[in-house]
Amino acid sequence: MMAQVVGGYFTSHVPAIGGAIQRGEQQSAYWKPFFDGFPPVRQWLAEVRPDVAVVFYNDHGLNFFLDAMPTFAVGAAAHYDNEDEGWGLPVYKSFTGHPALSWHIIDALVGAEFDITTCQAMKVDHALSIPFELAWPDAAAWPVKLVPIAINTVQFPLPSPRRCHALGRAVGKALHSWGGRERIVVMGTGGLSHQLEGARAGFMNPEYDRFCLDHLASNPAALTAHSAEQVAELAGTQGVEILNWIAARGALGDAPQAMVMRNYHLPISNTAAATMVLEPVCA
C-alpha cells in the first residue's frame, strides 16, 4: 500500500476569523454565512481521515520579511510553533512535522529544477493556523502531521500562476512517489480578492473570484492564463494569495476533481472569503 492523496481543502485565512473564533461570534449575523460552510468540511475530513497535511500558504513576516523573501520555501522541521505576527490573535496549538516526507518533497523539487529555500526551523502564522482551527475546532492536538510550503505573495517579483501550478504538480508527483502509507490532504489557503492599502483599499472582485471557483476543479489551467501582475489587478494586491490555491490544485494532479463543497461570501473584514473541498473523481 502506498501513500494516498485524499483530496484538497481550500479556504481563506483572514486574521479577523481568528478574532471571531476567540469571541465566539461564529453564529452572529455577520459571520454565520462564512462559518456555516465548515460542517461539510469537517464531515469530509472525518470520512477521509488524513494523516498528513501538505499546506501551501504565504508567510506574513513571521519567518520572512522584505529584506529576505524566498519565492518558495519548504519546511523540513520536526516541530512548528504558531506565533502571532501582530494581530493580537491567541497562539494556537503547535504542529508536528513530517521531516522524512518534507525531505522527499525537497529532493523532488530540486530534481525538477525548482530553486527553493529549505527551512529546518520554521514558525507558522495565521495563514496556516486559522484553516486548521476551522477544520478541527475541538481537537486537543492536531490530528495530522504538517509539511508547510510558503509562497511569496508579498513582494514583487512574484511567481507566476503558471509557475505555482507547476510547483504544485511537482509536489504532487513527489507525493505519489512517496513510499509511506499516509493519507495526505493538500491545503491551499488565502484570499480571495482583497486589497489592504492604497487607492483601491477595500477592493473585491466577485466576478474573478467566481471564475477561480468555477474552474479550479476541472480546468485549473484557466487560472494560469494571467500573469501575477494581472492577478493583482483582478484580485487586489493581497488577492494574489490565489497563487496558494493554484499550487495546491496542481498537487492534486492533472485529472479533474469532484467538488465536495463550495462556499463564497463577502465581505469578512475587507475580504471576499471562500472555502472549497475537492477530491479525486474515482474516490
What does this structure look like?
The protein is an alpha/beta fold and 283 residues long. It has a domain at 4-14 and 27-72 and 107-115 and 150-280: Protocatechuate 4,5-dioxygenase, Chain B, CATH 3.40.830.10. The protein is 33% helix and 23% strand. The chain contains nine helices and eleven strands. It has helices at residues 15-23, 32-35, 38-48, 99-111, 126-135, 161-177, 206-216, 228-235, 242-251; strands spanning 4-11, 52-57, 72-75, 79-82, 95-96, 117-119, 123-124, 145-151, 183-189, 257-268, 271-280. The strands form two sheets. The chain has an eight-stranded mixed beta sheet, with helices on both faces. Strands 5-4-7 form a three-stranded mixed beta sheet. Strand 10 and strand 11 (271-280) form a beta hairpin. The longest helix is centred in the middle third of the chain and has 17 residues, at 161-177. It is globular. The chain starts with a strand and ends with a strand. The mean pLDDT is 94.
Brief rundown of the structure:
This protein is an alpha/beta fold and 283 residues long. It is built from 9 helices and 11 strands. The chain has a domain of 197 residues: Protocatechuate 4,5-dioxygenase, Chain B (3-Layer(aba) Sandwich).
The total of beta strands comes to 11
For this structure, the CATH topology of the domain at 4-14 and 27-72 and 107-115 and 150-280 is Protocatechuate 4,5-dioxygenase, Chain B
Q: What is the arithmetic mean of pLDDT? A: 94
Global geometry = globular
